[in-house]
Amino acid sequence: MDQVKGARTFGATVPVTIDRPAFENAWVRNLGSRLVGLAGVLAVGFADPALLVAAIFNATPLVLLALAFSIPLRAGFYNIGAEGQLLAGGMLAATIGSSASVGSSEILIVGCVLAAALAGSGVAYLAWVWKRAFEVNEVVTTLLLTLLIQAFTSYLVAISGDGQSMRTPLVRSDIRLVDLVEVSGRSLSVATGWAIVALAAYSWFLKTRSAVVFKAIGLNSTAAAFAGYRVGLIQGNVVAIAGGLAGLASLQEILFHSGAFFEGFASGMGFTGIAVALLFGSSPTGIGLSALVFGILQEVFVRLQVYGVPSAVGYALQGSAILLVMAIRGRREGVASNG
Amino acid sequence: MDNLASVLRLAAPLLIAVVSAHIFARIRLFNVALESTIVAGAVAFSIAWVVVVTELGWAGWPGFLAAMLIAALVGASLGAIFATVVIVLRIDPVVAGVALGMIVAGGLSWADASMLPDIAVLAKRIAFGPKPQELGVWFFWFGCLVSVFVAGCFRLNPAARHAFATGLDEDGEEAGRQVGIRIGALRIWVAGCAGCVAAIAGVSIAAMSTGSVRPGIGAGRGYIALAIALLWNRSLFAGVTATMAIALLDAPFLKQIVEKQMGIPEGFKPTNLIVTLPYWALLGLLAVPALVRLLHQKVFRK
After folding, report:
1. Which stretches of A233-333 are assigned E, i.e. beta strand?
2. What is the ipTM of this complex?
3. Where are the beta strands (DSSP E) in A2-98?
4. Between the CA atoms of A226, A228, A231 and A237, what dihedral angle is there, to the nearest 10 degrees?
């Protein structure tokens, strides 16, 4: 077992030990399943580029939602209400994008991005405040807030729309994101780039000492507090960042795909984000790859609807995949700890 | 009286669901799939009701009770599966709940696409003695009975006391193992009972429903029940009061009063905004125990 230097962040130092052989073995084991996934994605890309583009389009919000679940989980916070944060961000961005009559398009796009991130952060932060101040389980508050925001956005759609299409007014045409890639009518925008940047930032972050601190807080917040870390402040910041990422996940729909907030556009997306975060592990490559796999699955089930296969089967398959992967992982860890 | 009856009807499924969430909480299983279990119970009841009446000819109460039993078995299976996944496969309860919820929701959407509209049409044709409104009030009293029974059970029944003790923490689990209790089996059995109660909450929704039974019929009651169960873990009184408060805020007559007070023009009803009232209230209620404790500490210090 190697002793790594003390991790010093936010004003205190704790010794960190990493069991290197076990870590490397686990990495190699996971590498096998990831390579299989990657080979599958590449095969799909060669066989049907439009399917691959559609899969990347579907994967874009899933990556951000998976990060919104994975990052706070490291710090011991179960953010299972990312869908509510996404809806809050989307509604605020759609409102600003459709109602602003002055200002350049660049400034307005930045305003929409910031608004979406802030709205998502605000909702997530509220759940954290309830946990911190009133000791209320965050699973309950994040779920309740999602229900609340679903109803609230539904009300806003009803009062702002034309009453028939169940959507908000369209955002200004000059702030709609342009097509970067287009294959057979399926296109990608810069929103996909934002998801990739978020993934890269997460990858960089995992190599910093702050990641170790987050993990220490997640594993034992009391011990971390005794070690001198400001647990509340750090956890609050992490939750706010996660909420911001969930808010950003709405922008592909609002600023690119439909240009408006359609009621129910994110139905079930939050739970799918959790599935993405868990399928191949919560590492950046794991999240990216499983988002692609889920993106392909979603597109395949959309196409299969023509043959009478309901898309709901795909949703059930995602749940089954989580259980299967977690069961295999639990069994491996059990064998490893017993052996 | 009509207003009171409407509150009782709204409180009935919630109260039964809260009992289920409370039992799950007592054995240290936080079941996020409770909402799906409730909806599965409602859908299973509707399908079973149609099949029992049309195929077996059991109209009236025998058919109703048989359909309810089938729904309860479906709920019990889901509860037991959830507990097995958590206890035997050692999967995190939140993750297991999310995954099981997705599987059930997917299955229900498939049922909705393939057979539920036909089932709804058939179910409406089957005449049954009591009106849906009367059934709702009966289910409320049933919920009260179940909650008193469960509360008593955890104090008086040795098996339930064991389940509670082993669900407290890992030390309790180890202690139970040392005295020869089969902890895993006991917790799975109790989870099955909790799932059964959750499905009956779904049955009450389906039995009261005048429209068709669809996958969205749970309307978030499972999540609300999980929140109220947190309050109930502190006291039975707090749990029942919170249930009644939420039902009151959800009542149609209150919505009408709010709409009138807000001076909203005719033909424009912001129902979705008023629908959020119970959620706001629940968030406030969840903060109350901590606030009371804080106040108590300050007064005590003085």
Report:
1. none
2. 0.72
3. 2-9, 12-18
4. -170
